[in-house]
Inverse folding.
């Protein structure tokens, strides 16, 4: 199958079919807005942020360092360092504030760096550093699906979301007979939105994994983003007592899914307000308050797979969205539906968090760019004109992007360095060229015909995941050749062809040579035995 994919893609790569290039760096699709770099110079992957004091911005680095941005300048020393393991979906994951208190969510490692727990701590902000820590919660942890997004309600109540951490039990809409892993008892406090401070009953259950919580400034209602499995990423309005449906349902529920759902007293299921059929890995969610224009009161959502910022216009009741595009009016982005109406920006890298600043503007952390971006009205005095771009039609991009399903399942997270490398080569080296765009279009047609099934098998078998990691490791190493591409069509074709030929040699040539060698050895052995027998003569 790999050879078929490589051969087909190689043929189309050199054909240079005409395709509109995708954005490889930040670009806005609306002249009324401007995008600027608010703060840069971070390291170690940004996962969240929160405004404190008089506009000071605390930014989380996955490695456990909390950094301070004051007046747009990143200060040299961290204001807090916690011990954590910043790999896969572990690390320093969430932050929120309420009054003078700041809340931190991070993964606590054991002596070997393995996840011991997810911890929520409360600190005081003295204007210079975070002090007086108090441990509030110790939660289950795994290398993936730890969640970590935090938000504060209009009444000062602090909330946090935790994913299923790979454990399936009653809180994942499963009966006692279906608990996974068998015999586990630490499924409690997973797949839920927690009341952190003050503590209380679960706010919501049945959440697979989430990287985004926010409150509507008009109604005070909670909203979240939720990552699906191989399909059906979601945006949900989350009333108190919400059941998001996992593991029985992702996306709009079917009768079969509803029948599988466990019944929880006080928790009620409702369909998501929007669903992406093909995964985009939605992350941060927020509301802008620019002071004028169609953007105020709309929902903004970032994603990790494509580096996009989406905008969704609210209906009059503010419990759903309105769309002009007929393809989106069912609330589902299906294959072939144009996303032009809702894509505001691209090229932001893996977005992890969105916050509304004291100025009403949108602030965005980029996991892969280690940068805080700001989006504001173009008419604002402090807006800087972004570099000129020739953006493509975002409505055609869903066919070009992809969830890297097999690699994501193999490494357990969309944020794994190997998965990020694949996306960076795709978005930074291939899609900006006509030949590379044609390659990806043909590749995706074949890849998505079998990758969801393979990813399902991987998630069910740790041995298969390990085997797949071993199998694709040489391919990942060979793809480093594409780092040499300078963006020209000729270099993309030459280096792309060389990479494909190298993979053919590794995955087909080497095994073929080994088989031929073994066959030669087998054929030679009988001849030697016959010769020896002839020399000895009859017994």
């Amino acid at each position: 199958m790999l050879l078929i994919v490589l051969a087909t893609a190689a043929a189309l790569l050199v054909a240079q079919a005409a395709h509109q290039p995708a954005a490889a760096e930040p670009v806005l699709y609306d002249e009324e807005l401007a995008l600027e770099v608010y703060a840069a110079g971070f390291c170690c992957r940004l996962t969240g942020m929160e405004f404190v004091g008089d506009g000071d911005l605390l930014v989380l680095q996955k490695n456990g360092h909390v950094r301070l941005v004051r007046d747009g300048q990143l200060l040299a020393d961290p204001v807090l360092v916690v011990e954590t393991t910043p790999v896969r979906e572990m690390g320093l994951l969430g932050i929120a504030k309420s009054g003078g208190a700041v809340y931190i969510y991070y993964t606590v490692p054991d002596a070997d760096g393995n996840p011991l727990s997810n911890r929520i701590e409360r600190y005081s902000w003295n204007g210079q550093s975070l002090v007086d820590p108090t441990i509030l919660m110790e939660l289950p942890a795994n290398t993936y699906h730890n969640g970590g997004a935090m938000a504060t309600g209009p009444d000062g109540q602090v909330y946090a979301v935790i994913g299923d951490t790979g454990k399936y039990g009653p809180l994942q809409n499963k009966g006692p007979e279906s608990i996974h892993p068998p015999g586990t008892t630490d499924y409690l406090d997973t797949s839920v939105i927690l009341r952190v401070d003050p503590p209380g009953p679960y706010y919501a259950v049945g959440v697979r994994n989430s990287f985004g919580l926010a409150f509507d400034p008009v109604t005070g209602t909670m909203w979240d983003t939720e990552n699906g499995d191989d399909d059906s990423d979601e945006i949900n309005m989350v009333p108190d007592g919400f059941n998001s449906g996992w593991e029985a349902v992702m996306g709009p529920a079917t009768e079969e899914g509803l029948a599988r759902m466990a019944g929880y007293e006080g928790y009620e299921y409702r369909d998501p307000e929007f669903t992406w059929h093909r995964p985009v890995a939605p992350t941060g969610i927020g509301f802008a308050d620019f002071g004028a224009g169609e953007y105020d009161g709309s929902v903004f959502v970032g994603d990790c797979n494509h580096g996009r910022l989406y905008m969704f216009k609210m209906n009059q009741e503010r419990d759903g969205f309105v769309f002009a595009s007929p393809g989106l009016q069912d609330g589902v982005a299906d294959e072939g539906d144009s996303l032009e109406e809702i894509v505001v920006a691209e090229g932001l890298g893996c977005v992890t968090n969105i916050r509304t600043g004291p100025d009403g503007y949108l602030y965005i952390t980029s996991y892969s760019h280690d940068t805080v971006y700001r989006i504001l009205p173009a008419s604002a005095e402090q807006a800087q004109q972004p570099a000129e771009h020739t953006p493509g039609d975002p409505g055609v991009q869903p066919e070009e992007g992809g969830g890297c399903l097999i690699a994501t399942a193999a490494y357990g997270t969309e944020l794994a360095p190997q998965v990020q490398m694949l996306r960076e080569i795709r978005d930074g080296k291939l899609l900006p060229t006509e030949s590379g765009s044609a390659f990806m279009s043909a590749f995706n047609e074949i890849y998505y015909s079998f990758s969801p099934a393979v990813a399902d098998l991987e998630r069910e078998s740790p041995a298969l995941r390990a085997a797949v990691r071993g199998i694709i490791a040489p391919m990942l190493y060979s793809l480093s050749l594409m780092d040499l591409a300078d963006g020209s069509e000729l270099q993309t074709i030459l280096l792309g062809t060389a990479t494909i030929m190298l993979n053919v040699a590794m995955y087909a040539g080497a095994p073929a040579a080994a088989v031929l060698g073994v066959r030669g050895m087998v054929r030679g052995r009988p001849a030697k035995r016959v010769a020896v027998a002839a020399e000895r003569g009859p017994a």
Summary: The chain is about 25% helix and 30% strand. The chain has two domains: 2-10+400-509, 23-377.
